[in-house]
Amino acid sequence: MVKFLKIVPFILLLLAPAVTYSQEVNIIPYLKQIEAGEKGKAVDALKDLKDEYPDDPSVMFLDGVLTENGQNAVAIFKTIIDKYPKSRYADASLYRIYSYYYALGLYQTSKKFLAQLKREYPQSPYIQIAEKKIPAKDEVSGEDKVEKERRPEKPKTENKNKTKKTDYKFTIQAGAFSNSDNAASLKKSFSDAGFFSETQEKNVAGTSFTIVYVGKFLNEDEARNFLEVIKQRFQISGRVVPIN
Questions:
Q1: Which of 9, 27, 104, 235 is most buried per CB count within 10 Å?
Q2: Strand ordering across the sheet containing 170-177
């Protein structure tokens, strides 16, 4: 399960003086609890806050901060950005999404969200924190190139020491379409939201369908939790399936 990294400067910025958003719930006390290592108190408070203020963007942000599954948290932060772009924590939500994909090593995806942060919130203090060199694919510095040229090639047998890929077990089948354009449209919606998505062709009783899948998960519980998120966000009814 991919979790968000605990970044101290990020919490400190949230606690700094800021413009008052009178219509939003003040979640700073709960962010202070998280910073003080009292996460359990914030979790308990969140239950009541969600019942009383289900559509408050600040409460949603606190929910995202306390959500350990990275894919679910990204969905929450993306909802804040889309529905409440002028809320207090909109820029912080973008920064969290950027941090998630950067931590995964998906630099091109993280770069897209950093560009959005700069474009939509040019005065955000998170830009200075996030603005770092994102390595391009196969990029090697000058010194690394020289060292690489000097170093003799290693036998191919050493490839067995490479880091193993994560063994995902489940995904979500989000839809089956006889019209491939509709499938491509749904896949694009998932990709634009920052979620992994792919399509596969399947023949059923002589009819060809394009199946749309979204997300990859280590266990069925993670997948079912994420399914509830995308049901609300994309108004679809999918199902959890094992990855073949």
A1: 27
A2: 197-204, 207-217, 170-177, 239-242
Torsion of CA 236, 237, 240, 243, to 10 degrees: -50
The sign one gets for the Cα dihedral 93, 94, 99, 101 is: positive
Distance of CA 216 to the CA centre of its chain: 12
Per-residue pLDDT of 185-213, as tens digits, reads 888 888 877 788 999 887 755 567 788 99
- Please tell us whether the domain made up of 170-242 is placed in CATH 3.30.70.1070: yes
CB 75 within 8 A of CB 193: yes
Q: Where are the domains of the chain?
A: 8-130, 170-242
Q: Tell me: pLDDT of 141 over 50.
A: no
3-state helix vs strand vs coil in the chain, percent to 5: 55, 15, 35
Which H helix or E strand runs over 100?
helix 90-103
pLDDT greater at residue 17 or residue 124: 124
Which residues are CB-neighbours of 134 under 8 A, at least 6 positions away? Answer: 102, 107, 108, 110, 111, 114
Q: Which of the 8 DSSP states describes residue 156?
A: G
Residue 173 and residue 211 in contact, taking contact as beta carbons nearer than 8 Å: yes
Q: What is the CATH number of domain 8-130?
A: 1.25.40.10
The answer to whether the 8-130 and 170-242 domains have the same CATH topology is no
Distances (CA, A) of 6 to 11, 35, 58, 63, 65: 9, 10, 19, 15, 10
Burial state string for 211-232 with b = 16 or more CB within 10 A and e = fewer than 16:
bbbbbbbeeeebbeebbebbee
Lowest mean pLDDT among 7-11, 124-128, 153-157: 7-11
Higher pLDDT, 243 or 233: 243
